[in-house]
Design a protein that fits this description.
Structural class: alpha+beta
Distance between the termini: 57 Å
Biased composition (Polar residues): 161-178
Region (Disordered): 154-198
Helix content: 10-25%
Radius of gyration: 25 Å
Shape: globular
Order of helices and strands: EEHHEEEEEEEHEE
Number of helices: 3
Mean pLDDT: 79
Length: 198
C-alpha cells in the first residue's frame, strides 16, 4: 500500500496557492526527502528550479533518483507509464500522449486531496516545507546537507570530545525553579576529618 503525497512549489505571484504533482508511493518524509535530495543532487545538478521543473513535469507512481531509462514498469503497469531517468516512474495518463494538468490548491483545502503528506519546494531558500495531509506545517528541511563545520559541537569534537560517547547518565536535570549551578556534595568523614568530594 502506498503513502500518497503531493510535491510541488508555491506560486510566485500567489504564494498561498500550491502547484503540485501527485506521487502514489513512498510519500513518507523519511523516504521522500532523501529521494528529493538525490534528484536535486543528480539530474537537477543542485539547481532547485530544475528540481521543481522535473517534479512538476508528470504525476508519479514513485520518485527515485536510481530510475534509469530502462527501468521496467511494474506488473500491470499502465501502457503510458514510463521511466524518467534520475527522477522516477510516471503514473501514466491512461491515454497515449495525454496531458496531465498540474494540481493547484490552497493549503487550507489540502484535506480534499486525500494525501498523507504535502511537500512544498522553495527555490529561493533551497528548502522543502513538509505539511501533513490536512495542510498543517510539520517541518522545513534543507536540500543541501548541513556542513559539519557549522555544527555547534564541532569545536568540542576537535578537542577529543565525542558527543556519541559522552556519559550523560550522571548529569542531573534541574527541576523547575531549581538552579542548574553545581551544589557542593555533602561531607563524608574520612580518617576522622571532613573533606568535600567531587
Amino acid at each position: 500500500m502506498g503513502t500518497p503525497c503531493y510535491v510541488g512549489t508555491a506560486s510566485p505571484h500567489q504564494p498561498h496557492l500550491i502547484h503540485a504533482r501527485y506521487v502514489h508511493f513512498d510519500g513518507y518524509p523519511s523516504s521522500l526527502l532523501a529521494r528529493l535530495r538525490g534528484i536535486w543532487a543528480g539530474v537537477a545538478r543542485r539547481d532547485t528550479n530544475a528540481l521543481t521543473g522535473a517534479v512538476l513535469a508528470h504525476d508519479w507512481e514513485y520518485l527515485d533518483p536510481a530510475v534509469t531509462a530502462t527501468t521496467p514498469c511494474g506488473p500491470g503497469g499502465i501502457p503510458t507509464q514510463r521511466p524518467v531517468a534520475g527522477v522516477g516512474m510516471t503514473l501514466g495518463t491512461g491515454e497515449p500522449g495525454g496531458f496531465e494538468p498540474v494540481t493547484v490548491f490552497p493549503l487550507s483545502l489540502a484535506t480534499d486531496l486525500g494525501a498523507a503528506w504535502i511537500y512544498v519546494i522553495d527555490p529561493a531558500s533551497g528548502t522543502v516545507a513538509v505539511y501533513t495531509g490536512d495542510g498543517e506545517p510539520a517541518a522545513i528541511h534543507p536540500l543541501a546537507p548541513i556542513p559539519i563545520a557549522t555544527h555547534p559541537l564541532q569545536p568540542l569534537a576537535r578537542n577529543g570530545f565525542s558527543p556519541t560517547t559522552a556519559n550523560t547518565s550522571s548529569r542531573r536535570t534541574p527541576t523547575p525553579g531549581q538552579s542548574d549551578a553545581r551544589r557542593p556534595r555533602p561531607c563524608r568523614p574520612a580518617a576522622g576529618r571532613c573533606r568535600r568530594t567531587r
